[in-house]
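User: Predict the structure for this protein chain, please.
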Amino acid sequence: MPPKRVDAFDVYEFQVVIAEDKGHFIAIGRDKRGTEVQRFTSINLDDARNEIRQVLSALSDDFVGYQGAINQFLRVYPKGFEDPFFLADERAYKLKAHEKAKILLGKEVLVEQIKNHKYSDVCASARKVFINLIFPNEGMAFKSFVERPKNAEAFCPRFFQLLYGLDFDSAFDDLSALLAPAGAAKWTVLTYWPFILFPDRHVFMKPEVAQEAARRLGDSFDYQSRPSAAVYFKYLGFARRLRENISDLEPRDNIDIQTFMYAVGKSGFVREGEKQRREWELRRH
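Assistant: Here is the predicted structure, written as structure tokens:
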């Protein structure tokens, strides 16, 4: 039997096709002219994907790589995660939101409110901890949804399970399904609450930036527009790999990782960041 095609995707300007042949996965990368430039064979499909992606990424002019990404980050924050501008510009307000979330969304507080059917209070607190990582229209979609008492009642136990339950996967997918009809199931919203409460183990996802950061670093987390636990855990895997590769900068938590990811994936970040730094330094003096 001829090899069976099992996957196809782009890596920068290259096209990849993966075929299965007698228990082996053959990944072939071709340039725009259709000329084969790389081939990799593995008995594991994920290994074949990852290897061909990394090799082709390094061949692209758009590839930044980790050292390039670190250099970009240090242009705006020369002292890395200890840079005074970084602490003032990116970390302080997120830490403030984190401390606020620990109070408003503390486990005992939520248990008491849900027990006493104070669903509107839970929903109000969920909104009060939002910062500028959540767009106003996203916050309004969530507000409009939970303003209906039945929706608020359905939201609260799932929300508690997302933050404190034993089955994060099910809670994440249940909330995504619940909020979807109202247009409130956004990656930004669903990842924000775990991130702002537990930045040591959860990461905020801004889809466009996260995808571009992964692409420029030669990585991927198989993004899909509908939020799901399966994709989120692949995203956490990307964040862990990122953290390992910039360990010399000594990131404290995923607040630092999220900002680094933004620095890599946001178009014009260095130019705008350097401008904002100059303005910040002028205000200080």
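The longest helix spans residues 84-104.
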